[in-house]
Amino acid sequence: MSGHILIVEDDAALCQLFERMLASQGYEVTLAYDGSQALATIQQKLPDLIILDMLLPYISGYDVIRAIRADEALKHILIIAATASTIAQNMPETAEADLLLMKPIGLFELRTMVARLLQQSPAQ
């Protein structure tokens, strides 16, 4: 497997767990712990896929999706939105994600969905 994945999650332990699992699958993984850090990281190096918690400090995952989808140079980036909130399923920004996963997310489920999305991506 190959590809650059940005994990945006304010729970540091969960973020690092996802990082270890995805890195062991051969992905290059970058971490961000809030929305503003995510947007800055994207400007430095474009990821192929973002795993994005929707409830983040400073700039929410909803705002991150809005910013990415509004930018012609970024809108191709695959996004997996992650939330524990059932309300998020009905938010318009969530519909702009390529996939919505409800927390808690199993490692097998995440690994499978990441591989599937990256295989389907024309950039891969």
UniProtKB/TrEMBL annotation:
Tell whether Phosphoprotein is among the UniProt keywords. Answer: yes
UniProt-listed Pfam families: Response_reg
Source domain of life is: Bacteria
Annotated GO biological processes are: phosphorelay signal transduction system
Alphabetized UniProt keyword annotations = Phosphoprotein
Query: Could you tell me which residues carry 4-aspartylphosphate?
Result: D53
According to its UniProt entry, this protein's organism is Phototrophicus methaneseepsis
Where does the Response regulatory domain lie? 4-118
**Name used for this protein in its record:** Response regulator
